[in-house]
Amino acid sequence: MVLQILIGAFLMLTTIAVAGASLWRVELWLRRRHDWLVQAPHGPKLLLLLCAGALWVMGLLTIWVWLWALTFYALGLFPGLEPCVYFALVSFTTLGYGDVLLPHEWRLLGGMTAANGFLNFGILVASLTEALRNVRLAQIARGEAQK
């Protein structure tokens, strides 16, 4: 049990660190392009940011799921890599079909995978919302200043 908690905690902290590093890069990117983002036309730029944000989320999700899947694979919990990736994806997204299960003695990792996904999705939604809100407020402020 203690080993499962240590492995799960390590993976959770690793995925959060990956998210933090990625958020830092996104923030730097947004700062460098701030003047362009707040110039009209606003709609296409917001659409571009939303699409880029969706791609960013999918990329992070892929990294996170693979971190968990490779851990499952390294521990020999499933007969091959495909069930490891499948279980990690289904658990991380909290879908939890239940058609593929961890061995009984490793089942705590399943819950930790789901908790990690739940937490990381919350971080991403909050970050995307904040970024889009800040860009939109800057666009409005720039428009009012030019009147």
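The above is record 1. Record 2 follows with the same two-line structure.
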Amino acid sequence: MNAPASRFIPKDPDFAARCRASFGRQAAMRLIGARLQRLEPGLSEVALAFRDELTQQKGFVHGGIIGMIADCACGYAAYSLMPASSSLVTVEYKINILAPARGDLLARGEVIRPGRTLSVTRAEVHDQHGAHVASMQQTLMMLADTPDVPD
């Protein structure tokens, strides 16, 4: 990934606390044991420790799990740049799984192009040995004046 995330200025100076609180409310991330490890304007990293319960029939981390952490990494990269009064939803993503996922994983998401309504992001997922496991490109839609809080 080429573009440095530091080129972005968040609209919310308290973006990190807001994003971490949002991530903490994700029951799906708790279920799989994922952690929001790094967060900067336009960039996030989601870490996942290997567990047998997350594997498919051959013992590799299931592709759906890989997609989950890449989706979140992209989502929080985009959300870090959005106003505090907003939330977001994934509109579309394309993931290419490039190698079997073995061991702990790290998904690094970054904003390619922020927009008023739609933002484009990308993620790469690597395993604990540095192998490039997957690449994702994603489009997210900002929901203006719809805070990301529980109902």
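The chain has one domain: 5-143.
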